[in-house]
Amino acid sequence: MAPGAAAAQPNETTQGVNRTAAVGRFFAGATVGLLAHEGGHLICDVIFDADPEFKRVEFHGIPFFAIRHKPGLPPRKEFVISSAGFWVQHATNELILSRRPRLKSEHAPFTKGIVAFNIGASAAYSVAAFARTGPVERDTRGMAASSRIDEPWIGAIVLAPAILDAWRYLDPDARWAIWISRAVKVGSVLLVLR
Predict the structure, then answer these.
(1) Beta bridge partners of 66
(2) Given this model, what pLDDT does residue 10 score?
(3) What is the pTM of this model?
(4) Residues 41, 52 contacting (CB under 8 angstroms)
(5) DSSP annotation string for 84-145
(6) How many Å apart are CA 6 and CA 74, to the nearest integer?
(7) The pLDDT value given to residue 56
(8) Backbone phi and psi for residue 152, each to the nearest 5 degrees, phi listed first
(9) Nearest 5°: phi and psi at 66?
């Protein structure tokens, strides 16, 4: 071994610190994804003067929070407020996956955390929508009630872009997934016209 070669090799402690830092950045990205989702609701609440407030809720014993707004809004406003978090997720994933289609092969834990949150949250909301379970403040229930579409169908509308974005992440050369993902995202926004 040449002199100084040992110094060029990362030791186990450095690798452990790097791995821990990457995990921390991944969860920081997921947290930003959550804040962006909730921020979408809050922005629309403010735009529609809906008096938003935070409320503690539980999902089968797991404590969480919801942003609640005043009842009696017109259906379109209710639909926009309930959908806004998903629209932010869709727009964020679209921006990331369009600019960085080969994200999977990059060392980008923060960005991967955002994409993972967006996909995972949509999947979790979809399961709740299919089962029609969870707090009354859940987004999919608000979307269903305001659009007069059964909640399981709303669950499918929320899940479709998540599945397609996951496919795009895993197979960036799947051009069909890119265009179908975009079409489904635009279609979910156009439901506001229903």
Answers:
(1) 55
(2) 57
(3) 0.88
(4) yes
(5) HHHHHHHHHHHHHHHH-TTGGGS--HHHHHHHHHHHHHHHHHHHHHHHT-S-TT-HHHHHHH
(6) 68
(7) 86
(8) -60, -35
(9) -130, 155
Amino acid letter for position 187: G
* Residues 73, 50 contacting (CB under 8 angstroms): yes
**Amino acid letter for position 116:** A
Tell me if 139 sits within 8 A of 84, measured CB to CB.
no
Residue-level pLDDT at 194: 79
| Helix (H/G/I), strand (E/B), else coil: 150 | coil
- Closest by CA to 154, choosing from 183, 127, 193, is 127
Q: Which of 148, 143, 152 is nearest to 81 (CA)?
A: 143
CB 143 within 8 A of CB 154: yes
List the chain residues with pLDDT less than 50: none
Beta carbons within 8 Å of 127's beta carbon, 6+ residues apart: 155
Q: Tell me the C-alpha to C-alpha distance, in Å, between residue 7 and each of 11, 12, 16, 18, 19.
A: 9, 12, 17, 17, 19
191 within 8 A of 79, measured Cβ to Cβ: yes
Residue 192 DSSP symbol: G
pLDDT at 5: 53
- With H, G, I as helix, E, B as strand and everything else as coil, classify residue 54: strand
Token pair for 134: 């969870």
Residues in the chain: 194
Question: For residue 1, what is the DSSP state?
Answer: -
Both structure tokens of 171: 């197979």
